[in-house]
Design the sequence.
């Protein structure tokens, strides 16, 4: 069940010039609906005249017991910059949980690879946490142009083997994530979120190796619920909404997207 | 207090939702009680399945947005055999926005919708700015507008609302033409044709280059056109364009609209329609108005 809710900002952590995390607390008066890894929220931005539409942001972490929701946000424009200025106690209006998340029903001891780039690492955190709880053996491969473009990387360590790659070699393997030795190890499932060229390369490699793969896409979005049809992507079944049919898609149905 | 009538269409309140902003209603069922709406206008429906335009399809602009979806929909057969059965139980007016590329297509869709018991009205879309064939070209020429409306009138027997384009020199002329051809009501305005450029990438923001502007930015244009048309025709006017609050809705009613449609505001607040219904009732109470019809067209 989706809801519109005024969360209270519990904390805002600035990681770098580019990234920050908002920790939001649900009202104790009502339970928070279940949120699945890979789902997203639409956040209303107040106090910025040019920002009318909500900003879609993937869920970074959820603590159902504490009633908290964490969003790892990249500063990309006026809306996200305004959100970075929020302070503790501020009210944040959120529509959630939205979209179709990652498939997490893997048998225990399955081997999963999670490949994230830039802001795309955000949804992989909660995914890794859920997979770890299911006994899945996770390899978490995160990449960025430079070290400071891979925020909160150390927080992934408890959930699997952490591998890092940077274009400039300032952290971990020097080069793209797909050239990291861990990328080519055998896996039962690959999940990826990040820049489109990275996701396409990961998806193509997974297809060649016969490994099931899910990608989490983003697109310019208005309604967030599949009503306006603004955020479509190409799939093998035609245009599908990133907001409702995605943001997570199985690449077995994304041949058209993968190969363009 | 809020009940109004658009031709034979009885609305429990003047609040409808605009086509293309509310899906098939069910997308909003988690947020609002759909039965509290005066009605909702479902996504533009064409003779056959359409994939719509390539993406990117939207861009946010000051106090508004541009979209160029291009009538993506599953086609009329899919609506009748599938979607209709999921929503027909609702205790509100389901209005189908009917689109096409030819007079034959408009008529064929209208005829199939005519057979649906729980759909008491169609909104004939002769004003979509985002399709190459048909769409707005029917709505920008009075003769063509009259032709398509007259043809649909012959095959469609319930309330026929015709949605007008603001991208014309005189919307009054088009409104009179469709009234003369048998329309029961006109709704206005569809989006204003616009364009935005990403100056860093040096290319248009949308794949289709141009798109339709909606949201609060267009509201004063819409109010003006509603006022002009309401004074020029005898049939009821449905007003839309940037309505976000009950006060906006009342402004349209005063300008001459019998009912209103809420569009882009649904994206900002999925429960906005309920706030508008409640706000209109509160406004009437505050001003001692027992029947909302008292304020329609007072300007």
Sequence:
């Amino acid at each position: 069940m989706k809801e519109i809710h005024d969360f209270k900002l519990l904390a805002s952590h600035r990681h770098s010039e580019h990234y920050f995390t908002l920790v939001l607390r649900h009202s104790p008066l009502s339970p928070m609906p279940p949120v699945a890894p890979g789902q997203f929220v639409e956040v209303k931005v107040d106090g910025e005249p040019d920002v009318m539409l909500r900003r879609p942001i993937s869920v970074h972490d959820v603590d159902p017991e504490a009633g908290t929701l964490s969003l790892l946000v990249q500063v990309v424009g006026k809306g996200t910059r305004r959100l970075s200025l929020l302070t503790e106690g501020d009210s944040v209006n959120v529509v959630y949980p939205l979209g179709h998340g990652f498939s997490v029903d893997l048998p225990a001891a399955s081997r999963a690879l999670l490949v994230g780039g830039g802001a795309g690492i955000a949804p992989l955190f909660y995914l890794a946490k859920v997979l770890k709880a299911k006994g899945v053996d996770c390899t978490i491969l995160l990449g960025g142009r430079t070290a400071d473009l891979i925020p909160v990387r150390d927080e992934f360590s408890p959930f699997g083997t952490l591998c890092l790659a940077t274009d400039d070699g300032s952290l971990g393997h020097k080069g793209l994530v797909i050239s990291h030795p861990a990328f080519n190890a055998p896996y039962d499932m690959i999940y990826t979120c990040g820049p489109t060229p990275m996701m396409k390369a990961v998806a193509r490699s997974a297809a060649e190796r016969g490994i099931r793969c899910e990608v989490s896409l983003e697109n310019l979005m208005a309604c967030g619920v599949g009503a306006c049809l603004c955020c479509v992507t190409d799939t093998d079944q035609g245009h599908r909404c990133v907001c409702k049919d995605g943001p997570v898609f199985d690449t077995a149905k994304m041949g058209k997207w993968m190969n363009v | 207090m809020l009940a109004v009538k658009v031709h034979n269409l009885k609305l429990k309140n003047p609040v409808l939702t605009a086509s293309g902003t509310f899906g098939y209603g069910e997308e909003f069922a988690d947020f609002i009680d759909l039965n509290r709406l005066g009605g909702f206008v479902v996504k533009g429906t064409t003779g056959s399945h359409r994939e719509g335009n390539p993406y990117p399809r939207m861009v946010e602009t000051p106090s508004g947005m541009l979209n160029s979806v291009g009538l993506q929909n599953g086609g009329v057969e899919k609506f009748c055999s599938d979607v209709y059965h999921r929503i027909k139980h609702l205790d509100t007016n389901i209005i189908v926005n009917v689109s096409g590329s030819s007079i034959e297509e408009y008529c064929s869709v209208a005829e199939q919708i005519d057979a649906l018991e729980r759909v008491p009205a169609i909104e004939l879309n002769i004003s979509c700015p985002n399709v190459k064939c048909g769409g707005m070209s029917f709505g920008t020429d009075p003769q063509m507008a009259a032709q398509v409306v007259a043809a649909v009138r012959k095959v469609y027997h319930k309330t026929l609302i015709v949605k007008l384009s603001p991208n014309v020199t005189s919307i009054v002329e088009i409104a009179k033409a469709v009234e003369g051809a048998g329309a029961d009501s006109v709704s206005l305005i569809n989006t204003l044709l616009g364009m935005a450029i990403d100056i860093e990438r040096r290319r248009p923001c949308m794949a289709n280059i141009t798109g339709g502007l909606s949201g609060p930015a267009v509201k004063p244009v819409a109010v003006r056109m509603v006022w002009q048309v309401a004074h020029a025709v005898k049939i009821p006017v449905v007003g839309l364009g940037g309505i976000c609050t009950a006060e906006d809705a009342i402004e349209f009613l005063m300008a001459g609209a019998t009912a209103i449609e809420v569009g882009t505001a649904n994206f900002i607040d999925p429960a906005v329609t309920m706030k508008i219904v409640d706000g209109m009732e509160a406004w009437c109470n505050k001003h001692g108005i027992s029947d909302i019809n008292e304020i329609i067209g007072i300007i």
Notes: Chain B has one domain: 4-52+71-193+214-295. The mean pLDDT of chain B is 96. Chain B has nine helices and 16 strands. The radius of gyration of chain B is 18 Å.
